[in-house]
Amino acid sequence: MSNRERLSQVFLNSEELANRLVNGTSITKDDSVLEVGPGTGVITNQLIRRAGNVIAIEKDPVLAYSLQEKYKDIPNVQIVRADILNYPLPDFPYKVFSNIPFAIEGNLIRIFLNTRSPLIDGYLFMRREYAMRFAGIPHESQLHITYSPWFNLGIYRSLRREDFQPKPHVETDILRFRAREQPLIDNRYKYAYARFVQQGYGGGLMIKQSLAPLPLSYPQLVRLAHDLGFKVTDKPSNLTLDQWIGMFSFFTTTSDLQQQKFLRKI
User: Fold this and answer.
1) Does domain 187-264 have CATH number 1.20.58?
2) Strand 119-127 with 164-165, pairing
3) pLDDT for 35-83, tens place per residue?
4) pLDDT at 161 over 60
5) Are the beta carbons of 210 and 200 closer than 8 angstroms?
6) Which CATH superfamily is domain 3-179 in?
């Protein structure tokens, strides 16, 4: 079995489709774009035409060498042989457009969404079921609630199995994750908020049970529920993004020492 088969990567089989997909993005000649898993360069060809600079990260040594030869005379593309999971992300503003192996989609999307690097906008090919969870379709999931304060998450395009070679066994969507110009929660609370949501969703309990271990008294929770329009007996999946942000914001404005200690934990 090849590395590609183990990593479950499939490739677009049409330059025309790749052109339409890239041309519909926010990418311009002013942008640097990171592409993961360029393969034979079907998408790379289009990114070179549209972006100012392209950094293509290819793990497979044979494909990386082939791409380096193919683009050696093209000034605005850099082919890097590396594993993206161990590769330092750019320290300058950049965008992402990548058709990635499904085997690394979970790790990679979290790297992008958790990064402190200046990521502006991203488009990632993912299994439809997984992409829709991040996009909050058909309802706001834990993943959507966790990352939406910093990113606008949605489905950019839905693709057919026939659009790929080899044909995948699952449906594919392109998840778009665009960084908010003004985050809904201060960046210094990013990890504290993620822990807060994780605790709230833990075990599928009622919100009054799942949040009980946190430094939040029951009267405080009752008051927050009243003010934000939910019930303390609700399941976490019933709460909206605004309600989660409203609850967490209480921690950022309180002078309670235990709540402040929770915010400072990394």
Assistant:
1) no
2) unpaired
3) 999 999 999 999 999 999 999 999 999 999 999 999 999 999 999 999 9
4) yes
5) yes
6) Vaccinia Virus protein VP39 (3.40.50.150)
